[in-house]
Design goal:
By secondary structure, the protein is of the alpha+beta class. The chain has helices spanning 5-9, 12-34, 97-155, 160-187, 192-216; strands at 37-42, 44-59, 64-66, 72-76, 84-85, 90-94, 219-221, 226-231, 238-239, 246-250, 255-261, 273-278, 286-293, 303-310, 322-339, 352-357, 360-365, 367-371, 375-380, 387-388, 403-406.
């Protein structure tokens, strides 16, 4: 049945206003009596992982700076930056005309010294032996002649002048014998002439070795297998010792060098497993392991230098790439955790939360264990069924009535 017209028009708006007033009053009364409706976090139980994240770059344990030991003009550079080389491969070749001439001269001096030694062995020594034999025979004859002359002088058959002449001949024969003996001794292996010849040969060989070394210095080769990561030399350049011409990254274990915030130093230990990821390939993680922790702290940065070995190097990993590492420092299979947004004064020694107990806000001190990305482990201070207000809600004070509304609890 239709309502009278005055009810449809005149009284409709006041009725709705009255109904809205009654509803609003109920809400205000309910809020004043039971407290405001606020979202809260609940505790979760499950696996929780704590990680330390840091950034750095790719580096090898040692890099090889390539340079020259002599001054010279570059004749050829047969390799390019980024090229993989083997130990012994030619990297830089210098002009070597002077060095080759010096080598030929040293080789000629070797041949001359060897000929001098052969001459002593094959000619001088045998000749000296024959001269000694002749000198010995001559001395015997002269001594016999001297004895006969002496007897004749005694018998008065010859004058004293002939005896003097025989004496002089005897002295000469004796001198010749001594000279022959000295000559023979000098030509033997322990003699002075022989030793001089040996020393001359040794000096010539040393000069040859020096010339060969200097010639070898004109060919700069790779000392180990690796990749050329820098090149600063071109054909025609005049190079000299002390300048780095190339940088070689040796093949083998690559490392990630990162800076860890000193507040996380207590979590890092040798041999810890971790994962690395490059900015260029963010979706491709690779395993790494902590290999070195610097004993000192960088005072300006407030960080510690840490190196991690790459256990399985991906093909795209190259020198000086920017990388990030995620080091797992703690893991709990059955942790009682709470959203990190509920923790107040988390960085101090006395963290606490504002829990809701029997409809009222209650301040609770808590003990924190493992810290995940979005949740932290609560080791004491709360029960599994407690609910906690967000730390961002600063208007609620302890003892105030609250009506909790459970919200989603994101976990790490």
């Amino acid at each position: 049945m239709a309502l009278p017209g005055f009810l449809n028009k005149r009284w409709l708006i006041p009725v709705f206003v009255l109904a809205g007033f009654i509803l609003l009053s109920g809400l205000i009364f309910s809020s004043a009596l039971f407290g405001p409706r606020l979202e809260v976090f609940t505790l979760q139980r499950g696996e929780l992982v704590q990680t330390v994240v840091a950034s750095g770059r790719v580096a090898t344990p040692a890099r090889v700076d390539i340079g020259t030991q002599i001054t010279g003009r570059v004749a050829a550079v047969p390799v390019k930056e980024g090229q993989t080389v083997r130990a012994g491969d030619l990297l830089i070749e210098l002009a070597a005309a002077d060095e080759k001439a010096a080598l030929e001269l040293a080789q000629a001096n070797i041949r001359q010294a060897e000929a001098r030694l052969r001459q002593l062995q094959q000619l001088t020594q045998p000749t000296s032996e024959q001269v000694l034999v002749q000198a010995q025979a001559n001395l015997i004859n002269v001594e016999k002649q001297y004895q006969r002359t002496r007897e004749l002088v005694t018998q008065g058959f010859v004058g004293k002048s002939q005896l003097d002449e025989s004496q002089r001949a005897l002295d000469v024969a004796r001198s010749q014998l001594k000279s022959a003996q000295f000559q023979l001794q000098s030509s033997k292996p322990d003699g002075s002439d022989y030793q001089l010849a040996v020393a001359g040969l040794q000096q010539a060989k040393a000069n040859l070795a020096a010339a060969q070394a200097k010639l070898e210095h004109t060919r700069i080769t790779a000392v180990v297998d690796g990749v050329l990561i820098a090149r600063d030399v071109e054909r025609g350049d005049i190079v000299q010792p002390g300048k780095i011409l190339m940088v070689l990254s040796p093949a083998g274990i690559s490392q990630l060098v990162v800076q860890i915030d000193e507040k996380n130093l207590r979590y890092i230990r040798m041999g810890q497993p971790a994962f690395g990821v490059t900015d260029a390939y963010p979706g491709q993680k690779f395993p790494v392991q902590v290999a070195y922790i610097n004993p000192g702290v960088d005072a300006q940065r407030g960080s510690v230098n840490v190196k991690l070995n790459v256990l399985k190097s991906p093909l795209f990993l190259t020198q000086d790439m920017t990388v990030s590492v995620e080091i797992e420092v703690a893991r709990s299979r059955d942790a009682l955790s709470l959203n990190v947004e509920a923790i107040r004064d988390a960085s101090t020694l006395h963290p606490w939360v504002m829990a809701v107990v029997d409809g009222r806000a209650v301040r609770r001190p808590v003990t924190i264990g493992i810290r995940g990305d979005k949740s932290v482990e609560i080791t004491s201070g709360l029960n599994p069924h407690d609910v906690v207000l967000p730390a961002t809600n600063m208007t609620i004070e302890a003892g105030q009535r609250v009506r909790p509304v459970v919200t989603k609890n994101p976990q790490s």
